[in-house]
């Protein structure tokens, strides 16, 4: 009887200890403004027609890409012309949807000062609802403004939607945009990307980042990029949680790209991957 009591007491004691022996779940860092279960969709518009006429006439894709390093190889969809061509059969605007469901938040990389989140991203062709192509994606969130400047290469990531929409759609919470533009403008110069410092050490390009409400504006004056006959303005904004709100790319008064975050849909079903018979290009950085 005594042995039985001791055995039962031992089992009960061990059972009481189990909750304390279970590894603690890592807490999401305070700078991360997303949660598992979040789902947002960005709608992209490429303004086909007259808006691109002057850009192409000025040969600006080549001039823009040679400095920033946009890959022009087939299938990469990084430079402006390749992004333009990839959606030219997608139908009326908005041409595409870029989903970002948050399905997992990985432990913080304290060395890098970042947290990676993952989900089944990809793209939707909004005019063809059956065309829904997704694949596993990860997005990295910086711990603070300075780290975000480093990750986005002093704003260079925003020089083409083909880079931005598959990389840093999430910023840290409450970015100090005055600090961002100050650090980024330094980073574009000598000792950084060597974009704005004079030749031969740098490119000698005339580009400046300016703080705007909830983000920054990248601005190039007329002839500031050698042969641009119109100014270039790229505006990127995020909400206080760090979600990308909008992205616009203008050449003069011509809106080339316009990407906005739509209201979060209720449905977050698993991805549907279907075939598509129309003559349609695979978009941007698809790796499936």
Summarize the structure.
The chain is of the alpha+beta class and 288 residues long. The chain is built from 7 helices and 10 strands. α5 crosses α7 (177-187).
Structure, described:
22% of the residues lie in helices and 25% in strands. With 288 residues, it is α+β, with helices and mostly antiparallel strands. The chain has one domain (2-261). Strands 1, 2, 3, 4, 5, 6, 7, 8, 9 and 10 form a 10-stranded antiparallel beta sheet that branches.
Which key phrases capture this entry?
288 residues, alpha+beta, 22% helix, disordered C terminus
Considering DSSP H and I runs of 4 or more, what fraction of the residues is helical?
10-25%
DSSP helical segment count:
7
Radius of gyration: 23 Å
* Overall number of strands: 10
Secondary structure: elements and pairs:
Blueprint: H1 2-21, E1 39-46, H2 53-57, H3 60-68, H4 80-86, E2 96-101, E3 104-105, E4 114-125, E5 132-142, H5 145-151, H6 161-164, H7 177-187, E6 208-212, E7 215-220, E8 232-238, E9 244-251, E10 254-261
Antiparallel strand pairs: 1-2, 1-10, 2-4, 3-4, 4-5, 6-7, 7-8, 8-9, 9-10
Helix pairs in contact: 5-7
């Amino acid at each position: 009887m005594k042995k039985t009591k001791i055995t039962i007491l031992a089992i009960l004691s061990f059972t009481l200890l189990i909750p304390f022996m279970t590894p603690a779940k890592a807490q999401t860092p305070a700078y991360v403004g997303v949660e598992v279960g979040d789902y947002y969709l960005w709608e992209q518009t490429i303004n086909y027609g007259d808006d691109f006429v002057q850009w192409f006439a000025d040969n600006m894709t080549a001039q823009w890409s040679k400095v920033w390093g946009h890959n022009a190889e087939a299938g990469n969809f990084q430079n402006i012309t390749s992004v333009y061509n990839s959606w030219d059969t997608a139908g009326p605007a908005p041409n595409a949807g870029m989903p970002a469901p948050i399905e997992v938040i990985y432990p913080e990389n304290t060395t890098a000062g970042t947290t990676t989140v993952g989900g089944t991203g990809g793209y939707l062709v909004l005019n063809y609802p059956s065309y829904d192509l997704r694949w596993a994606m990860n997005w990295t969130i910086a711990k603070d403004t300075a780290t975000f400047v480093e990750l986005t290469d002093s704003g260079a990531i925003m020089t083409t939607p083909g880079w931005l929409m598959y990389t840093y759609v999430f910023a840290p919470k409450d970015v100090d945009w005055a600090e961002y533009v100050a650090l980024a403008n330094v980073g574009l110069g000598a000792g950084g990307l060597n974009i704005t410092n004079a030749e031969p050490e740098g490119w000698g390009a005339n580009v400046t980042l300016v703080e705007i409400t909830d983000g920054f504006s990248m601005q190039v004056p007329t002839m500031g990029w050698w042969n641009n006959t119109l100014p270039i303005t790229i505006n990127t904004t995020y909400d206080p949680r760090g979600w990308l709100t909008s992205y616009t790319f203008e050449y003069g008064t011509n809106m080339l790209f316009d990407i906005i975050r739509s209201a979060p849909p209720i449905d977050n079903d698993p991805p549907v991957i279907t075939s598509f018979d129309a003559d349609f290009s695979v978009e941007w950085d698809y790796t499936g």
